[in-house]
């Protein structure tokens, strides 16, 4: 049997052939997803006696032996038909298109997938193969896929310290390819051996949302190959910021999309409308802003159940931005137990120069007194150097943070060189409740040769200019209304 790494390389190497025909790496993974689902559905029917979810005319058996234009026509009609089916089928095939215009190359892909008996592979092996494809796709930075792929070592450490118990309802409102949901499931699975509990866990505990159709397809397939989900897909396409919905979750793990501005403004209870078009109204939000990270943070605060836990990856500006940022930070410290902040190093994300943090907080019942007593800050960024290829982030790089965090025993925490505690009173007394706090001596500041790469500096400059332009447009719009 082909080993997982060899199989990943086999299917990925074909991407280079298709690249010459203008098929992007992201489009190739989309085709792999659709074709592989058809093959596995047929195998479940043939070898396990399961009822196929797919009408007979669109199954693998109706596709695999066709060639030439007949194959291309059958494949295209299959994608269109299955996009109209309910449940998981609609999620997998929604807006899917055949991007391989050469029938001979499409035939080669079909033969390659048909050459393996996927149902005979262990669930973890199938998941490993697909995760390998997703990671290779994310490494192709120019394709843009990296923005949906959070480093798996970081995800595993976050899930470990949050220490989710089996059965906790878990949501990722910006789920990307499903890394957080998968890691939470694996963590829960280790603790639970009851088969019925595990079945309910797989079918009912996890919810994901993403605004991009193609990414939802990848996530749904990723979860499916790991054995998560039932007839209905655990993930769906949509804009999570439109509404908090009616369901509340005991755990929220997410890494919202990076970027300092959005084309939409979310109007909160302060009613300070900056733009007259493209707005959402969210009465559950305390602040009005077009900063999508602040809006995602407010959204997580809303969908979290009382006594629920959250871990959210957010960029640096959330720690110190004034206006809406200050309002959100003060509410977070007052109404929630915001207990831990992890400052992440650069070089670990596929987008160059990203400066990010992880905020850990618990939702508490309404109270007259602030729930946050102390915020513990772990300075992982200072004097750390990572790159995607030469020195990628590994899980063991976060061992000290996990040890300092004291999962399940936070009351036993102790300060260390990188781990410091700051009281609620001293934090809210800071100008704008600024959380841009550091204490370690940064050796790189003494070395001019250690400046970020030019492309990193350029990306940061562009992002800051875009954010500034957004603010200028808001001011101009306000002045026009005043006239």
Describe the 3D structure.
- With 483 residues, the protein is α/β, with parallel strands linked by helices.
- The chain has helices spanning 4-19, 25-48, 68-82, 87-93, 103-114, 123-139, 152-162, 179-191, 195-204, 213-225, 292-303, 317-320, 324-335, 399-405, 424-428, 454-482, and strands spanning 170-172, 206-210, 235-237, 249-254, 265-267, 279-281, 304-315, 336-343, 356-363, 374-379, 419-423.
- The protein has 2 domains: 4-124, Ferritin; 136-461, 3-Layer(aba) Sandwich (Rossmann fold).
- It is built from 16 helices and 11 strands.
- The longest helix is centred in the C-terminal third of the chain and has 29 residues, at 454-482.
Question: Can I get a quick summary?
Answer:
This protein has 16 helices and 11 strands. It is α/β, with parallel strands linked by helices. The strands form 2 sheets. It has a 9-stranded mixed beta sheet.
Helix and strand layout, with pairings?
Elements: H1 4-19, H2 25-48, H3 68-82, H4 87-93, H5 103-114, H6 123-139, H7 152-162, E1 170-172, H8 179-191, H9 195-204, E2 206-210, H10 213-225, E3 235-237, E4 249-254, E5 265-267, E6 279-281, H11 292-303, E7 304-315, H12 317-320, H13 324-335, E8 336-343, E9 356-363, E10 374-379, H14 399-405, E11 419-423, H15 424-428, H16 454-482
Parallel strand pairs: 1-2, 1-4, 2-3, 4-7, 5-6, 8-10
Antiparallel strand pairs: 7-9, 8-9, 10-11
Helix pairs in contact: 1-6, 2-5, 2-10, 3-5, 4-10, 6-10, 7-8, 11-13
